[in-house]
């Protein structure tokens, strides 16, 4: 007899999004930039300096961007919730009927919809929660506020950016460039595979998708670096 084991990953999808986005963007943008600089300059110090500056500036920019975007979304949702709360207080019968219709729309049988809407309407917090989810499509997660998401984005970008840059700290430019490329592309594929822990999708497709995007940035960096080298 198979023992029932109830498991759900409780990691917020928004947190996963920030981490994946940060690491992926850090690897892709840094790889494309320093590969082009390495090919164009062949100067060890220039590559390390440029890579460090890119990571430092872009990680802050990404963190701030994440904070502003998520804070704006939070403010808009709070305003919508406040409006809904006022409607529940001013028009309780109409809101109860609206919730009833939403239950029916979601597929709940009519014989229990009446009782569900009655119970919800007698509890203002529950009523607001149901209306927020079913009418406004707002499912708030207090554990992941804008600041926390921004920190995840900031840290993730630094981690991702260091992947292609690390080889240049220990190897000469001609040797570091291919190592940086191979390690970063492998890292991108691994990142795609890691996301399937939460998506339950095909690990091969997920890895290949993110790898292909990284390859595009690499090709652009190679082309620009090659052109620059001809004029140096």
UniProtKB/TrEMBL annotation:
Which keywords has UniProt assigned to this entry? Membrane, Transmembrane, Transmembrane helix
Report TM segments.
Answer: 20-39, 45-69, 151-171, 177-198, 210-229
Mention one GO biological process in which this protein takes part, according to its record.
Answer: intracellular manganese ion homeostasis
Recorded GO MF terms: manganese ion transmembrane transporter activity
Membrane-topology annotation of the record: Multi-pass membrane protein
Q: Does the keyword Membrane apply?
A: yes
What the entry lists under Pfam families is as follows: VIT1 (PF01988)
Q: What is its subcellular localisation?
A: Endomembrane system
- Which Gene Ontology terms of cellular component type are present? endomembrane system
The keyword GTP-binding is assigned to this record: no
Question: Could you tell me the superkingdom of the organism this chain comes from?
Answer: Bacteria
Q: Which InterPro entries match?
A: Ccc1_fam (IPR008217)
Q: What is this protein called?
A: Iron transporter
Which taxonomic lineage is given here?
Bacteria, Candidatus Doudnaibacteriota
